[in-house]
Amino acid sequence: SSPMTIFNRTFSNKTVILNGMAVDILRYLAEKLDFRFITKDSDDGNWGSPQADSEFYNGCVGELQRGTVHIGAGPFTKTAVRDRVIDYSTALFQESNGILVPKPERESRLWNLFMPFTYKVWLTIIGTIVGCSLIAWLFAFFSPFSAFNLGADYAVADEVWLKEYLWSCIGSFLQQGQDFYPFAMSARAVLASWWFFIVIIYAIYSGVLTSFLTVTVTKYPIKTLDDLVTQTAVTPYVRRGTNLFDLLSNAQSGVYKQLAEQVVLYDPDVESCPSNPPRADQACVEDYSALLAIALKNCTQYYVANEQFNTGTIAFMFPEDAPYADLFNFQ
């Protein structure tokens, strides 16, 4: 589990070539205590959970019980269930579980033109265009001082046509100007107010549009464990034999019970999470540090949810009453 254990090569007899924090600690201890070691993976790929039909646990814990290995080096969480059959070293650090989620596809920038204003604001602007056109037309049509009503030689019928005022307001909004100007002062005052309104709207629109075009904001739908269990588009995956697996197996209520009802359990020897190639409907629930390492390496494909949960102490494991355990802890 990166960054504690990074598998470089695995041989047929389950021995492995490793790097990572756990191996660095083992090398330090080997130098101090003058011993050599061979690293291997667990035979069944599990960390260690009780088995109903056996006194031995599966995974690394079971191999420690049987004496197959002498130390369990990795991000093993201290739990009361495991502590019944093995001993733990001095605490190394605190670890939590996290959620690795596929990044949603970026939204098309085609409609960013309309993003500076909300849907309601655009409807308000459309309503304002219609309302301003209607008011200006009413003033011009009924005003005794319009050129058309005065019968002036220079009067045109456009002055009392509603569609001309509608086109004038639309043209002004699109900064295309207009074909005529009403003679009556009341109608002119309405159009002048409309122009001032347009200047303010364009100033706001231009500033907000610049930010939308220069910054792409991706909305992450899953940020907490509650978000994960209250949606159906993404399925949580949990590895068998882990501390979290035991927690979900015994959950009776609350969010962990909800997670247990939705989760897909997988064996690391059969499949992996995240899968290769990545799946958009798969969320990995595992050690936060390991998930963070994956997300940093594949930052365009995954992100880690904000919430950390099920915090526990990480330590190495020894067989019960191992004579060398105190020496390891002292170092």
UniProtKB/TrEMBL annotation:
<dbReference type="InterPro" id="IPR001320">
    <property type="entry name" value="Iontro_rcpt_C"/>
</dbReference>
<dbReference type="Pfam" id="PF10613">
    <property type="entry name" value="Lig_chan-Glu_bd"/>
</dbReference>
<keyword id="KW-0407">Ion channel</keyword>
<keyword id="KW-0325">Glycoprotein</keyword>
<keyword id="KW-0472">Membrane</keyword>
<keyword id="KW-0812">Transmembrane</keyword>
<feature type="transmembrane region" description="Helical">
    <location>
        <begin position="121"/>
        <end position="142"/>
    </location>
</feature>
<dbReference type="InterPro" id="IPR019594">
    <property type="entry name" value="Glu/Gly-bd"/>
</dbReference>
<keyword id="KW-1071">Ligand-gated ion channel</keyword>
<keyword id="KW-1133">Transmembrane helix</keyword>
<keyword id="KW-1003">Cell membrane</keyword>
<dbReference type="GO" id="GO:0050906">
    <property type="term" value="P:detection of stimulus involved in sensory perception"/>
</dbReference>
<protein>
    <submittedName>
        <fullName>Lig_chan-Glu_bd domain-containing protein</fullName>
    </submittedName>
</protein>
<dbReference type="Pfam" id="PF00060">
    <property type="entry name" value="Lig_chan"/>
</dbReference>
<dbReference type="GO" id="GO:0015276">
    <property type="term" value="F:ligand-gated monoatomic ion channel activity"/>
</dbReference>
<keyword id="KW-0813">Transport</keyword>
<feature type="domain" description="Ionotropic glutamate receptor L-glutamate and glycine-binding">
    <location>
        <begin position="3"/>
        <end position="66"/>
    </location>
</feature>
<keyword id="KW-0406">Ion transport</keyword>
<dbReference type="InterPro" id="IPR052192">
    <property type="entry name" value="Insect_Ionotropic_Sensory_Rcpt"/>
</dbReference>
<feature type="transmembrane region" description="Helical">
    <location>
        <begin position="194"/>
        <end position="215"/>
    </location>
</feature>
<dbReference type="GO" id="GO:0005886">
    <property type="term" value="C:plasma membrane"/>
</dbReference>
<keyword id="KW-0675">Receptor</keyword>
